[in-house]
């Protein structure tokens, strides 16, 4: 469990580095987290990245793989910022600790009901 916690802190540190550079990843999931035995953790697949603009712009809600998408996106919120990258690490952490997906829904509403 100590190793999982170390990876979780490392993931949050990497996300923080993205946000400091005004970048939102928008697709954090286990498949996009690369674990290196020596160097620690890396984030991959920056295909959905957006540079943060102020004021906050309207973006599509169809980002972040369904099981790792936060409630605000599942409910269709069009205005969001870096906070959308914070729900996913919690889901990833729980999955690493239990070896089971946390909220494996088949649709937006199905995933939302699993969360509730």
UniProtKB/TrEMBL annotation:
Q: Which Gene3D superfamilies match?
A: Transferase(Phosphotransferase) domain 1 (1.10.510.10)
Tell me the keywords, alphabetical order: ATP-binding, Kinase, Nucleotide-binding, Serine/threonine-protein kinase, Transferase
Q: Please indicate which superkingdom the organism of origin belongs to.
A: Eukaryota
Q: Secretion signal: which residues?
A: none
Residues forming the Protein kinase domain are 1-116
Q: What is its EC number?
A: 2.7.11.22
What InterPro entries is this protein classified in?
CDK, Kinase-like_dom_sf, Prot_kinase_dom, Ser/Thr_kinase_AS
- One Pfam annotation reads Pkinase
The family this protein is said to belong to: Belongs to the protein kinase superfamily. CMGC Ser/Thr protein kinase family. CDC2/CDKX subfamily.
Subunit and interaction comment: May form a complex composed of at least the catalytic subunit CRK2 and a cyclin.
Query: Per its UniProt record, what PANTHER family does this chain match?
Result: CELL DIVISION PROTEIN KINASE, CYCLIN-DEPENDENT KINASE 2
- Any idea what this protein is called? Cyclin-dependent kinase 2 homolog
Q: What is the lineage of its organism?
A: Eukaryota, Sar, Alveolata, Dinophyceae, Prorocentrales
């Amino acid at each position: 469990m100590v190793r999982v916690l170390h990876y979780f802190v490392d993931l949050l540190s990497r996300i923080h580095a993205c946000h400091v550079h005004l970048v939102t990843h928008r697709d954090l999931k286990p498949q996009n987290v690369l674990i290196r035995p020596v160097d620690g953790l890396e984030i991959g697949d920056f295909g959905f990245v957006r540079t943060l603009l102020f004021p906050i712009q309207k973006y599509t809600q169809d980002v972040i793989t369904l099981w790792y998408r936060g409630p605000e996106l599942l409910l269709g919120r069009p205005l969001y910022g870096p906070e959308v990258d914070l729900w996913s690490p919690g889901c990833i952490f729980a999955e690493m600790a239990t070896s089971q997906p946390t909220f494996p829904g088949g649709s937006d509403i199905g995933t939302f009901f699993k969360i509730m």
